[in-house]
Automatic annotation (TrEMBL):
Keyword presence, Thylakoid: no
Compartments where found: Cell membrane
Alphabetized Pfam families for the sequence: MurJ
Top-level taxonomy: Bacteria, Bacillati, Actinomycetota, Actinomycetes, Micrococcales
Protein name: Murein biosynthesis integral membrane protein MurJ
């Protein structure tokens, strides 16, 4: 499958998934509130499997599995024997981690929330955790199956399967509100049956998306069987790679603990854990639609070039992928920034809450472009079988986050704490990206990115007036007192309108100044440069 077709397929699936995911969050907020003690308790519990999954999918599986599967595909059986062993190993390891996490649920909740939660709120979060932690097993198997399919150039199922999760969750949350009501923000209103329905619904959605992916796995002609004969499958090399990614995982968890502890003290009054997660969800829309959709096929091709020692083609892929990503990511940053308040209104129950949450979203956006560059650079290390170097620049990033988050905890007022924590994470990510790029150059030689940096600078200059035009549309609508903040639906429509204005102005400027990357992007979408 060509890069253009693969990217379009992933983008379409991701767009549908993100839209339904946004609807899922809107329904959930209607049930438990945006700035509430109950909402933060659920968010903390649901974050436990999510945070581990993010590291598994982005680090251990992407970094270790994809290059190994690409190499195994060249075997006589197309790697089917290796995949059966790999699937069995993942089943055992992820299952074991899930059991341990379930048994340690009270401890995990304490680690993430003890600073700011009352005993009643902590107890509610623990009850939710028992229902949410089993998601970890299904998240892990979903990521394992999906990354193997990606490595074999079967991209669509992994991008489309999460839609089933959102559909199941939306239906379950609506049933919850029919049974128990809405806006249940106070901890005292909750009982075990309510916890079971809400937490069980969240987990059932993850089960559903994993089952869907297994169906596509079988249709792809890959045997789905268990094989415990692990000798000879290259566990030594994989163990070395996994050791570094495991250390990266532990660092990520430590960072998450400190961040959540810092945010939890604002629970109930100001943006806290749940509000920060919702802002991150909006941030992930352009990240997923652009960076994952375009970057994932490039990573597979980079892995193929690395395995074949085609370094010239690999460097060309790095430069081209960063330019194409930048072309779209930069205008997306401008559009989401201009629409920050209306977009936040979608995930709040009032205009005042939207105004409080918007700075959190703006802070996250600072790192969107650097994260696009990091996506390519980090995965190039993985393509060469190097997980040690990503560990090094991740340690630097995590150390900065830890130090400055602690500073935030002691210096920043509660109403600005979530935004400050997000800004610390974003700025640390910028440092991480710069360091990672320098280390990659030292590993494989000059990257030839001078023209790429100039292209990104041109995109930024064109995105500034585009973003200003979008924000002007928000001001013309009445600003904070206008129609865009009157309701969730109006907020969504307003955000779409602002994004459309930004996109139109940006596209016009690209055509006027005849930016060459625009033609490359169009050709890629048309699959001419596959």
């Amino acid at each position: 499958m060509g890069l253009g077709r693969a990217s379009a397929m992933i983008a379409a699936g991701t767009l549908t998934s993100r839209i339904t995911g946004l609807l899922r969050t809107v329904v959930l907020i209607s049930a438990i509130g945006a700035l509430s003690e109950a909402g933060d308790a659920f968010a903390t519990a649901n974050m436990l499997p999510n945070s581990i999954y993010q590291v598994i999918s982005a680090g251990v599986l992407t970094g270790v599995i994809v290059p190994q599967v690409v190499r195994a595909t060249a075997q006589k059986d197309s790697g089917h024997a290796f995949l059966a062993k790999l699937l069995t190993l993942g089943f055992v390891l992820v299952g074991g981690v899930t059991v341990v996490a379930f048994l340690c649920a009270p401890l995990l909740v304490s680690l993430f929330s003890s600073a700011g939660y009352s005993p009643e709120q902590h107890a509610l979060a623990t009850q939710f955790a028992y229902w949410c932690i089993p998601q970890l097993f299904f998240y892990g198997m979903f990521a394992l199956l999906g990354e193997i399919l990606n490595a074999r150039r079967i991209f669509a199922p992994y991008a489309w399967a999460p839609i089933m999760n959102n559909i199941v969750s939306i239906a379950g949350f609506l049933v919850f509100m029919m049974l128990f009501g809405s806006d249940l923000t106070q901890v005292s209103l909750w009982n075990p049956m309510m916890v079971m329905v809400l937490g069980g619904t969240a987990t059932l959605g993850i089960v559903a998306q994993t089952v869907v992916l297994m169906f596509f796995w079988r249709r792809a002609g890959i045997p789905l069987r268990l094989d415990f004969r692990w000798r000879g499958m290259g566990l030594g090399q994989m163990r070395t790679l996994a050791t570094w990614t495991l250390l990266t995982t532990l660092i990520g968890q430590l960072v998450g603990i400190v961040q959540t502890q810092t945010l939890s003290v604002a629970s109930g009054d100001f943006p806290s854990v749940f509000a920060s997660q919702n802002a991150w969800l909006v941030y992930m829309v352009p990240y997923s639609m652009i960076i994952l959709a375009i970057g994932t096929p490039y990573f597979t091709r980079i892995s193929e070039h690395a395995a074949a020692k085609r370094d010239v083609e690999l460097r060309g892929d790095i430069a081209q992928s960063i330019r194409i990503l930048g072309l779209f990511v930069i205008v997306a940053t401008a559009a989401v920034a201009a629409a920050a308040v209306p977009a936040s209104r979608v995930f709040s129950n009032g205009a005042d809450e939207a105004v409080l949450i918007a700075p959190v979203l703006l802070a996250f956006l600072v790192s969107l472009l650097p994260m696009a560059v990091l996506f390519i650079v980090q995965r190039t290390f993985y393509a060469y079988g190097d997980a040690r170097t990503p560990f090094i620049f991740t340690v630097v990033q995590a150390s900065l986050v830890l130090i400055f988050t602690i500073v935030v905890a002691f210096t920043v007022p509660l109403e600005w704490r979530a935004a400050a924590v997000a800004l610390v994470q974003a700025c640390s990510g910028i440092v991480q990206t710069v360091l990672a790029t320098i280390l990659l150059r030292r590993k494989i030689g000059p990257l030839g990115l001078a023209s790429t940096w100039r292209a990104l600078a041109r995109f930024v200059l064109m995105a500034i007036p585009a973003g200003a035009a979008g924000y002007g549309a928000f001001l013309l609508s009445g600003g904070a007192d206008g129609w865009m903040l009157q309701d969730k639906i109006w907020g969504a429509l307003g955000a779409v309108l602002i994004a459309a204005v930004c996109g139109a102005v940006y596209l016009l400027l690209l055509f006027v100044f005849r930016v060459p990357e625009l033609r490359v992007a169009i050709d890629t979408v048309r699959n001419r440069r596959a």
